[in-house]
Task: inverse folding
């Protein structure tokens, strides 16, 4: 089945916002076996939008629309849909009740502008919005199904995954296409390419390199007549590829490294304390994205000043004076110090120069020392990372998390 | 003048890559006074691309195309252009010489596939590529100008800014368009809409609401005959709008709240210490994105466990036992405790239930207490935030930063 995606909003056609919804929807449709033939961006203009909707309804069997469902004067998608297909807006009572209930639950009265979101084109079906106020809409025009979702990405995703995807999946029953993403850290695209050179021509899956800021992802895509065959093809490709890259693969299923490390910590029942300088709380922030991490993460100290390193981590001020705050010795003292004070299994420390200023000839911007303290020892890593302040922070955080991963994996 | 942008590539229609070129080009065109009416994404298919090119040439006076100019088998834009407008590919000698020279300079022989990039549609003009091998192309079809740029963003930008923009600017001599983004927090789209209801019809600028997960942005776009007039129209709109929304506006120029707060702290020479529970280091991470923040941010404590709250912040364990870790009392003790220990001007604390588990009837998921301690006092805020774990964290962090902003602003 061929599909089109329509993205509505002046913020897109003016370039003020980068559209990420179409990419999400195209990927998800691909997983269901639906190929996207066209993506159309159009501004907040009823006639333009109605025109695009009519064209798409003629040319495609499935149309996904995002944007313009909100409560303000420039949210015109409901009107455009009504105009495109010759219907009118009517009050959808269940939606109106749902909106009032959402506000009542917070002790508020729904404003008039919000109540207008319950006006839907007569004949359209609504789709529950689990994370927002505006419901999704479905309109069927001569066999073409048009799904309309809000422009807010979290709402578009929520409605797509809970309502649209299940409906489409139920009906497709066609070729199964599955993609698996292997994620790596600490190895370059060309190093991986060399290691895989011999097996690539023989793989029964499509292999794409996706270099990301903090590592290289490998996307494997298999196509076959049934689900078992696609999964088997992926399995077999994974088992050929992974041994060649070794421990630089941290996920076989596309998870972020903090999810992998957080879940390993919880599963191994290991406790961790953090002492961050150059990463500035980013390691703590990433790990606390993982539900249940409170069982493992005892504390995090963002010791940005030398005073804080001395007072909160017990780093000796002479050590800082002698070696500088960005040094192997101070990283080791930070990791051991936080581990001891928190009485945890592991202590992880970062210290470095995130930039843009503060670099010297011997200690350039991007120099980072990482330390992982455990019972009876401490591992140190030294990296010189490239990129601006935010990238140095992100790359240092990922490398630090990777030390925890390797430590736990070697003890499995 | 109305324009269309066409983005070519399977990586876009499959969702493997997010298209950023169209957003860049739309913004740049806007600055020259050219409005983009439509953005079309299409896969690597000669017939589809040729069809889109023909449609666009009929409907618009200016068409910008990116993608499909590279050396590989799926780079088909040159062929599609030839097919769309009934011409054939011929060798462009200056381009062929340029390509050979680029390779010779590196001591290499140009591969055959790369040499094919010198084949251009007969009748097309080429545009120099200052940062890559593939030249840009210009094709004129019955008065419509079609500019074709590579898909690699750095190459598209280089050719656009050095060749396309100057050509368009020379000819337009028309309207200037400028956009300003006001950012708000703690007020809903519909509340803003009501407050502005009276002035909206009289504004001399276009107003768009851009709801984000952590607040609502307002984009103001002015169009006028010269730069001074557009800037004056924006100034006047800002001065009408801002007083109606009051202190809920945290930026008049589109900055993130952590940038605003970080720069205020540095400018006011105020020091800050953080005590984070539910935000898990996110506030520290955001503030440490701001260069120079080390002068203000003394430390951050991620006190995830009760033990850490007691040991690192001096919170009394009886207080936690009596009121629970998520309570006004504990928030206050965390903020005061970290401020005292760090000897800073301000102490900022967060405690709450980020979810997905841990909620109770009286303390639901999303309940957050925030505290800001200063000399002689402590402010408390209580919020019930919606969304998943990551959204609750982000929303709590933004609200916490906003307390610092309001405190500093009230003392200016």
Result:
């Amino acid at each position: 089945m061929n599909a089109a995606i329509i993205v509505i909003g002046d913020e897109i056609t003016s370039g003020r916002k980068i559209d990420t919804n179409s990419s999400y929807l195209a990927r998800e449709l691909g997983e269901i076996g639906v190929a996207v033939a066209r993506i159309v961006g159009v501004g907040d203009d009823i006639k333009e939008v109605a025109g695009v909707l009519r064209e798409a309804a003629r040319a495609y069997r499935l149309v996904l629309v995002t944007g313009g469902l909100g409560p303000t004067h420039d949210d015109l998608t409901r009107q455009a849909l009504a105009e495109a297909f010759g219907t009118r807006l009517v009050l959808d009572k269940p939606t109106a009740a749902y909106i009032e209930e959402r506000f009542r639950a917070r002790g508020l009265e729904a404003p008039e502008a919000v109540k207008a979101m319950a006006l839907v084109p007569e004949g359209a079906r609504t789709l529950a919005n689990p994370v927002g106020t505006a419901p999704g809409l479905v309109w069927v025009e001569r066999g073409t199904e048009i799904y309309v979702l809000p422009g807010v990405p979290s709402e578009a995703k929520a409605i797509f995954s809970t309502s649209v995807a299940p409906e489409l999946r139920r009906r497709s029953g066609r070729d199964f296409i599955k993609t698996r993403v292997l994620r790596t850290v600490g190895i370059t695209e060309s190093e991986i390419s060399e290691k895989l050179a011999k097996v690539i021509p023989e793989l029964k899956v499509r292999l794409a390199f996706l270099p990301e800021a903090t590592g290289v992802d490998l996307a494997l895509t298999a196509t076959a007549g049934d689900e078992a065959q696609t999964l088997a093809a992926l399995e077999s490709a994974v088992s050929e590829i992974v041994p060649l890259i070794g421990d630089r693969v941290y996920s076989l299923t596309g998870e972020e490294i903090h999810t992998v490390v957080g879940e390993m910590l919880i599963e191994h029942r290991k406790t961790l304390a953090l002492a961050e300088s150059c990463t500035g709380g980013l390691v703590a922030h990433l790990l606390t994205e993982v539900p249940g991490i409170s069982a493992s993460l005892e504390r995090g100290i963002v010791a940005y000043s030398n005073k804080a390193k001395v007072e909160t981590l017990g780093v000796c001020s002479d050590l800082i004076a002698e070696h500088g705050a960005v040094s192997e010795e101070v990283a080791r003292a930070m990791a051991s110090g936080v581990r001891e004070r928190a009485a945890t299994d592991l202590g992880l420390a970062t210290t470095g120069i995130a930039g843009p200023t503060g670099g010297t000839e011997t200690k350039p911007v991007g120099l980072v020392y990482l330390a992982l303290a455990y019972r009876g020892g401490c591992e140190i890593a030294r990296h010189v990372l490239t990129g601006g302040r935010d990238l140095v922070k992100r790359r240092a955080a990922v490398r630090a998390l990777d030390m925890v991963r390797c430590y736990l994996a070697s003890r499995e």
Q: What stands out?
A: Residues 226 and 373 of chain A are 48 Å apart (CA to CA). Chain A is about 40% helix and 25% strand.
